[in-house]
């Protein structure tokens, strides 16, 4: 359902999974990604954070957390979460290039902002 972008149906399905297995980190992550699809950023963040609490090495939870934190305006938090993702993700992870690009872009924007502030009297 996530692959087909049927996020409402995915939410219903993952809610049922969480009813049966509330400590299953993968279900928390998938709820988070369904909520991203619906642009419900705060709720998505909560599910990614709970997945990480349940399993510290839940790689895709860090990627989702970075995405939601960036949308919520927490760029430092997003950068930290994406760095954690890159630290844990295998080199052949298909999302790794996108994560590296996002982190590079965020760092560049941060450096530009800092340079602009130094120019302003």
Automatic annotation (TrEMBL):
Superkingdom classification of source: Bacteria
SUPFAM superfamilies: TPR-like
Repeat in keyword set: yes
Keywords: Repeat, TPR repeat
Presence of the UniProt keyword Ligase in the record: no
Gene3D superfamilies hit by this protein: Tetratricopeptide repeat domain
Name by which UniProt lists this protein: Tetratricopeptide repeat-containing protein
TPR repeats: 25-58
């Amino acid at each position: 359902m996530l692959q087909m972008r049927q996020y409402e149906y995915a939410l219903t399905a993952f809610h049922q999974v969480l009813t049966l297995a509330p400590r299953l980190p993968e279900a928390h992550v998938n709820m988070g990604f369904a909520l991203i699809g619906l642009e419900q950023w705060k709720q998505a963040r909560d599910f990614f954070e709970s997945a990480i609490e349940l399993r510290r090495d839940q790689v895709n939870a860090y990627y989702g957390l970075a995405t939601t934190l960036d949308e919520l305006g927490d760029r430092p938090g997003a950068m930290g979460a994406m760095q954690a993702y890159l630290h844990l993700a295998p080199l052949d992870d298909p999302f790794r290039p996108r994560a590296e690009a996002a982190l590079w872009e965020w760092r560049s924007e941060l450096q530009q902002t800092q340079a602009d502030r130094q120019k302003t009297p």
